[in-house]
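B., you asked whether I could sanity-check this one before it goes into the benchmark set. Here's the sequence:
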Amino acid sequence: KICKTGRYKNKDMFWYEQFYHCRGGNLAVDKDGGEIVAVTGATISSRAVVRAINNSIQNLQKYLGRKQKG
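And here's what the prediction gave me:
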């Protein structure tokens, strides 16, 4: 939401930086009640990216959990 106030002149950097301090695998775009601001006119694509990141985080957590046990 910072981007809408004009603090970021480079919207690509704003998009990437939204993910820097996120934790867990439960990210969502703002239109779905999350904190990630969707790219204007590309909500479906933004959702797909967020879903891919969530899946990657969950898979990594599963892998690390198995590796620690065995």
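One thing to flag: Residues 1-6 have pLDDT under 50 and may be disordered. Otherwise nothing jumped out at me.
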